[in-house]
Amino acid sequence: MSRIGNRAVSIPKGVKVQISGEKIHVEGPKGKLDLETHPRMKIELRENEIKVTRPTNTSQDKSLHGLTRTLIHNMIQGVSEEFVKRLEIEGIGFRAELKGKILQLQLGFSHPISYLIPEGVRIEVPKPTVLEVKGPDKALVGQVAANIRSFFVPEPYKGKGIRYSGEVIRRKAGKAAG
Predict the structure, then answer these.
(1) Is position 1 within any domain?
(2) What's the pLDDT band for 2 if we cut at 50, 70, 90?
(3) pTM for the whole structure
(4) What is the rounded CA–CA span in Å between residue 165 and residue 172?
(5) Which of 80, 132, 156, 163 could crosslink 167 through cysteines, CB 3.0-4.6 Å?
(6) Whose CA is closest to 78, among 18, 36, 34, 38?
(7) What's the rounded Cα separation, in Å, for the pair 50 and 55?
(8) Is residue 178 part of a domain?
(9) Domain range holding 75?
């Protein structure tokens, strides 16, 4: 039995859920999200919760059961609270700034890097060396944060680069003097 798939997803106040066939529409104070689930999964909307059930105990149905429940839970959590990924920029002269819908990054290259912020995601720059990627869609927030991090992945010798907040970079010793 799936431990995660069997749990009901509670719906907080201020969040509206509509289910029509395999499509789920979730609307809340932080945004709107849509999801098309697998046709084998059965989704029931009760008073203040959603229950996901599977038809059989095949391995594919077991996998889809937990996945579907988690995706629905993330949608509800995202439209009510929003997901946040913090990125820290480390290096001399490294900084970020917002110019409308474009994020400008100075990462020690001969040119600044311009990143067009996709729809459904907000980026805030509280300090020039700290970025916050925010949005209701967990996968999109994570992907945008990973794309920004990929411009200058932290290197192990000096630790320069863009890292997730709380990420530990294993440092290496430099060349030994001969």
Answers:
(1) no
(2) low
(3) 0.89
(4) 20
(5) 163
(6) 34
(7) 17
(8) no
(9) 9-80
